[in-house]
Amino acid sequence: MDQPIRDFLLNNFAGVRQNGTNATIIGKTSGEFIADRNNISRTWMDHGAWPWITTELYIHQTGDLKFLLEETPYFEARDRGTVLEHIVIQHLAASANLGEHGNCRLEDADWNDGLDMARDKGESVAFTAVFAGNMIRLAEILKVMKEKLGIQTVSIQKASRSIDELSSEIRQKGEALARQVRENEWIKNAAGHAWFNGYYDNNGARVEGDSPKGVRMTLTGQVFPILSGVASNEQVAQCFAATKRYLQDKKLGGFRLNTDFKEIQLQLGRAFSFAYGEKENGAFFSHMSVMFANALYRRGFVEEGYEVFSSLYKMSMNADAAKIYPGLPEYFNGEGRGMYHYLTGSASWYLLTLITEVLGIRGQWGDLLLAPKLVPEQFGKSGQISAEISFAGKSLKVTYLNRSRKPYGQYRVESVLLQGKTLPLEQSQGAEILIPRTKLTEQASPTLDITIALA
Fold first, then answer.
1. What angle do CA 105, 228, 148 make, to 5 degrees?
2. Measured distance CA(94)–CA(185) in Å, rounded
């Protein structure tokens, strides 16, 4: 168990309010939060979604389900509650705060804080999908807690709840939101392309689709229904086709944050006051692009994910256009120039995607899951690729062998060696194998070699 990470996560839950919203600024000391910036109190409606996403990753990496039962205070309140209670409140609040079209209200903005002028009637379909997917997975983890920890009841706002009833309620609410996005926000334009509408503006009008000034589409509106698992496989395929048609720059290869709306959108946000191709108005935003790649990989669209993932690398390495040292900037502008090279949260998502999705090295309830999603060229001339990571208190060197360089979908796990000794394949399926955590922790050496032959 990584105690510093555990403590860091626990302290951050002290920024959650009892009404399900979050403080917007992390302070200088552990557990310190500030309500707003420049004394302007605002609510970013997506903030309630991320704590669970982060915590879920931690639990899968460590198997530390008991973390959800730790108590921590609420922001600007004397009361305390478990981490689980904080997470449940965030999601129940979001699922109840719906606009007239049935989606979570946009409030002052979501991930794209340039969409900040639709406080009254704005809705974020994108993050309705996120909350939906979160709630469905949260319902599942409650069942796992019952199975592994023997818990029958939990306390939510000082009231005891059956864990089965709570799981059922959260799942039903999550599935209702998922249906809302999947069925009611799926649009098709005159050219025959289909994708998700991502937003409603402050007039209550649907943002995306055909308009007198041309097609309007956002990348964010496609990423989160895919990432959350809300979109069907057919919808994923059509979304990708539409993004290639309307958002991919044919010269630079990257995917823009939105099409050119060709006018200022005072009913939606300040983003559209920027020149098209700058910042949140149609730039190549690294963070959203890498989440797009992550989403496609998660859903098994490997070739598509690789195209998006590698487009960022190619743009950053195009020195003539980017005019930066190789690296991942906050965004590339319309000419492909890297901007705000020092201001980006994209790098962590890039590495997360590379390790957990492309290389497929990640935890599953504390055990080690190896599920590579590699394309032939990534194996190089030698037919192998290696990575070194930390897991279960060990330093692992994981090597995949694919001598025939078969594409994803055609290779399977043929054999696995741990410290040179063959492991049974009884927990393998196709291109995946699950290695129990105990198989790693019982090894005396702090560094372990794992070799997986694919055939």
1. 115
2. 18
The secondary structure element, H or E, covering residue 55 is helix 50-62
Residues 245 and 369 in one domain: no
Per-residue pLDDT, 148: 96
- CB contact at 8 A, 252 and 338: no
Domain count, the chain: 2
Q: Cα 167–170–175 angle (5° rounding)?
A: 120
Is 321 contained in some domain?
Answer: no
Which residue is listed with tokens 């959650």? 16
In single-letter form, the type of residue at position 352 comes to L
pTM for the structure as a whole: 0.96
Q: State the Cα–Cα distance between residues 247 and 258, nearest whole angstrom.
A: 6
Half-sphere exposure of 220 (CA within 13 A, CB side): 26
Nearest CA among 21, 19, 24 for reference residue 40? 24
The CATH code of the domain that includes 385 is 2.60.420.10
Kindly indicate the confidence band of residue 341, based on its pLDDT and cuts at 50, 70 and 90: confident
The answer to whether the CB of 47 falls within 8 A of the CB of 111 is no
Amino acid type, 161: R
Q: Is-contact 65 148, C-beta < 8 A?
A: yes
Alpha helices in 217-370 (DSSP H): 220-227, 233-246, 286-298, 302-317, 319-322, 346-353
**C-alpha to C-alpha distance for 87 and 429, rounded to whole angstroms:** 33
Q: Which domain holds residue 207?
A: 3-282
Answer yes or no: do 98 and 228 share one domain. Answer: yes
User: H or E element: which one contains 206?
Assistant: none
Distance of alpha carbon 385 from alpha carbon 326, whole angstroms:
22
- Tens of pLDDT, residue by residue over 258-284, are 999 999 999 999 999 999 999 999 999
Cα–Cα distance measured from residue 424 to residue 388, given in angstroms and rounded to the nearest whole number: 23
- Three-state secondary-structure class, residue 166: helix
What's the CATH number where 276 sits? 1.50.10.10
> Do 134 and 259 fall into the same domain?
yes
* Number of neighbouring beta carbons within 10 Å of residue 128: 32
Tell me the per-residue pLDDT of 220-231, one tens digit each, with 9 for 90 and over: 999 999 999 999
For the chain, give me the number of helices (H) and strands (E)?
A: 12, 22
Phi/psi of residue 90, each to 5°? Answer: -60, -40
